[in-house]
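Think of the structure tokens as a kind of shorthand, similar to the way a musician reads notation: each symbol stands for something richer, in this case the local conformation of the backbone. In the example below we present two proteins back to back. Begin with the first one, reading the sequence and then the tokens, and try to describe in your own words what changes along the chain.
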Amino acid sequence: MREFNFRAWNNERNEMANGDCKDTSDNINWKLPFMSEVSLINILLSKESYIYMQSTGIFDIQSNEIYESDIVLKKTSATVYGVKGNMIVVFDDGAFYLTAIGKNDVNRLTQHSVQRYGLEVVGNIYENPELTIRSQLD
């Protein structure tokens, strides 16, 4: 059975919170041994200052876990349906996709596509918004 991992962007503090950290400003422990996962998720989802992102369950070429809202860079010379630059990982209609920056094209994200195109996580849309600017070379 697949494990579901999440991370969250704190809009008020402009920082990423991963699953094993504590948010002392809100007195939230992300992993509390005495609390069920459902209870913890309900508490976290009630916090409006967070944007939650789910892991895709897929790892990039450097073995980094890929999450929705990550920005990935293609390291091979092959084009992903004509896309040359950075792509953003999005979740839509029950699946994870790669979307080209500044375009409406989407492509399904799979472990095979990671290997074929040499995809590497280079940031995310919250911590690295500068990476979402479309390259003039695309």
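Once you have a description of the first chain, move to the second and do the same.
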Amino acid sequence: MNRAKLIEQIRLKKSFLCVGLDPDLSKMPKHLLASEDPIFEFNKGIIDATKEYAVAYKPNLAFYECLGVSGWNSFQRTIEYIPKECLIIADAKRGDIGNTSSYYAKTFFETYNCNALTIAPYMGSDSVKPFLTYPGQVGGCFGDDFKSRCKRFSVY
């Protein structure tokens, strides 16, 4: 996924819809809790109901990571199920020293094939640069002063 393909999807679907996938087990319909993978089943239902309009999906990693290996498996199944024409944004809010950030980038861009990742620039440019070494991938900066910290890291 690149900018041109995203714009193409926006025009085709006449939509800017980005669907957050924040599967909270405590708020999930009871019938799904009996399934082998309630997180995936919940997400699958949302994806099926929105794929005609959505141009992006944004799974929030906190809801997956707290479940350990089974949560990571649900995350992987979810991103594999998302239609290929949609942007996948890993809402992970990562940011650390350069070497660690390099491995976070590798995890989401290579292992999980996400198109974009939310990042936290609090530790300065060293924590952001590794995410920008992947052509066509996007790191989104968030924080109190994200505009001043991220303007020099524009990917478009």
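Compare your description with these statements about the second chain. Residues 19 and 57 are 5 Å apart (CA to CA).
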